[in-house]
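Hi F.,

I've been meaning to write this up properly since the lab meeting, where we talked about keeping a consistent format for the predictions we share between groups. The idea is simple: the sequence comes first, exactly as it goes in, then the structure tokens exactly as they come out, then a line or two of notes. No screenshots and no reformatting. I'm using this chain as the first example so we have something concrete to point to.
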Amino acid sequence: MTEEMTEQGMSEETMDVSRGSPLNGPGVAPDPAWFEQAADEPPYARHVLTTPLHLEAADESRTNSWTEWAGYTVANVYTSIEQEYDALRTRAGVSDISPLVKIRLSGREVSAYLDRLLTRPVGALEINHSMRAVLCDGNGCVIAEAVLFRLDDEEFRLVLRSSHMDWLMQSAQGFDVQLEDVSGTIAGLSLAGPLSDSVLTLAGVEKSGALAKHQGGWVELGGMPVYLSRTGMMGGLEYELWCDPADASVIWRRLLTVGQAVGLRPVGAAVRDIARLENGIALEGIDYRSAFTAIDASEALSPYDLCLGGCVDLERSVFNGQSALRKIADSGSTNALVGFELDLADIAVVGPICNGDKQVGHITSHAWSPTLQCTIALGLVEASALGASAGFSIKAQAGENVPAKLTKRPFLRFP
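Output, unedited:
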């Protein structure tokens, strides 16, 4: 009874906003603008953009550590960076690469279209082979890097980190060619590490070791068709498996089951990023901006700025950006994306990059390399600084300048 009276009394007092006590809240009704507006839907009802392997990844995750890739939620760390890295470099690791954009190109004039689109010709590319491709705008600035697969005489697949479908469609005007974004119809897995062939053999894939680098072909895994290619960005022995999304979970589970015999582990985005850095690979959206997203002209870079001159063939028929690239090749690029090694904890790297007392660039990405036992970094610097006598240094988190050793890419060399 006493409790009921107390609650009733408190309720009546609380309703009396004229009371002067600050415990009773404001004397006027609160303005809704003071507070965060309610969401359109409750958090538990919000949708997460998932890959075909999301549930499998969630089942394997012991950290609940996730990250975003092209709008998709993917595992960042499954168990620990140390365990996953060790598996990748000494045994084998499997990861989800389904967020990659996949564009199918076909038609009577598809080769002519690609010759006009890319900085190197496709005529010599054999069926079931792939090559690194660079797409430039009319100013010779990089829009995207990609891997181009030739699947048949008049059929190709372009694999990119981000979609540029509208521009690709506009560029196709006047050509007898069909373009289709097939990203949602193809799931992707990466299998990498020195024992990758053993995992595939245990899974029933025959003669995977016969595939040369950049080569691919159809195989059967657990009764399901898989396009197996010797491609990837992490360095060393690496395969990519492209399959129907409905088959992806079964293939993932089979690889992990048979791979237990050789120490196969799932590998998250964090270790993939370390591995691609060790391999010296720069990524669009991280190490450089696409020409379409550059805020100003200085942020739009040519293939020569990114040290991709080997992907440019100027002595052929007209292609996007050819005239501008020829001028850059003659005069020299103004920037260079280079590698650095630092005797410094990874978390302390901030940038900028200095040559003597002069600031000449900035760090684009960095990571601690367990193999090299140092921090490795990619940095964009003024090309003129590469010939200077003064050494490079990078400003650390504490404010001091740490000596940086200019290093050729890739940082790790593989057989």
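Notes:
The longest helix spans residues 245-259.
Residues 101-184 form a domain with the Alpha-Beta Plaits fold (CATH 3.30.70.1400).

If this format works for you, I'll send the rest the same way.

G.
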